[in-house]
Amino acid sequence: MQALFLAGGKGTRLYPLTYGIPKPMVPIMGCPLLEHNMNILKLYGIKDIILSVCYKSAYIKNYFGNGSAFGLNLKYVEEDSPLGTGGAIKNCERYLKDTFFIFNSDILSNINYYEMLNYHNKQKAAVTIAVTRVDNPSSYGVINFDKHGYATSFCEKPSADNITSHFINAGVYIFNAKVLQEIPAGKNVSIEKEIFPKLLAEGQKIAVYKGCNYWLDIGTLEKYVQANQDGFIGKLFLPNMNFRQQSIYSQPNTKISKSVILRGPVYIGENVQIQANTVIGPRVILGNNTVIGKGSNISDSILWNRIQVKNEIKIDRCIITDESIVKNASHNNIITPESTRPI
Ligand code: GDD
Ligand code: MG
């Protein structure tokens, strides 16, 4: 079975995190979001993956290559200018056959893909859309459906006075390949606003799958922080870590001085050095190739990769992006190599 990731969006709501990298590559518990989601697909035996890329596509291609180092078979389909969600799917038609999964690349969920596929087959649907219930659906695609589990209407990002359901499109679909014939080629098309309503109007069956009880769209800074915190309390499924069982995870080649105090939960990436008399934790992620200077104190913070924290620095509630050098104490800030600003 194949999976297609829509990974071309700009991720403007995550600025400044996405100035340098595309949104699907923001690290969640030390691992790019896209890699995390592909690792989960591997557990289901899905290794043939198509990546529909546009914004900062080189970053994604350089990281994953052809996928062989990750146990995956990856193909890239590039857009010169954004084709929208529907146009991007159509653009991948040459690689897609039979029945396949499609994912928005900015979500985390605990959907059981075997169950979703069985449901799709049982419902004999052209498309199955995973839905999840949210309190405020106004930034999502609202879906109404009947008692047999088939969609009856769609409303993308409704205004507050036009909310007809709290079930929203969770950004995970199963498509039968023949649906691709319904999408016009070479133009910007929205799958949510144009194609799903068109399929309904034609009388095609769109099933809704409700088996999703953990779901997060990493669309905002607040949600980005939440995803990492959910990892620490075991709410977010992490293929190789379970913080309910173990409070400190450390990757190979770390150098941690004996006098360092680690207060779990803490995640320490590869080649991290933590110098003497430092206190790390709770709820701290140290990305790969990071150096923490003597006598520093870091709590409730997400550090990406290749970061230097100088000696005697206190950091609390910060997100620090790749290659930053931290020379001053910081609280509640996003620190990038160029600037520091409040979260
Ligand atoms: N290749 C490509 N080209 N990918 C794109 C393009 C494009 O032009 N536009 C968006 N994408 C990708 C994004 O990278 C993201 O992974 C996915 O398509 C969805 O785009 P978002 O920009 O994140 O959409 P949204 O969050 O506002 O809304 C969508 O997701 C919600 C759930 O998180 C919709 O599908 C909603 O209906 C849904 O509820
Ligand atoms: Mg989104």
TrEMBL record:
Q: Which UniProt keywords apply?
A: Transferase
Q: Which residues form the Mannose-1-phosphate guanyltransferase C-terminal domain?
A: 263-330
> Upper lineage ranks?
Bacteria, Bacillati, Bacillota, Negativicutes, Selenomonadales
- Ranges for domain Nucleotidyl transferase come to 3-230
Q: Which SUPFAM superfamilies match?
A: Nucleotide-diphospho-sugar transferases (SSF53448)
Q: Which Pfam families match?
A: GMPPB_C (PF25087), NTP_transferase (PF00483)
Provide a Gene Ontology MF annotation, just one: transferase activity
Protein's recorded name = Nucleotidyltransferase
* CDD domains, per database record: NTP_transferase (cd04181)
Q: Which family does it belong to?
A: Belongs to the transferase hexapeptide repeat family.
Q: Which InterPro entries match?
A: GMPPB_C, Mannose-1P_guanyltransferase, NTP_transferase_dom, Nucleotide-diphossugar_trans
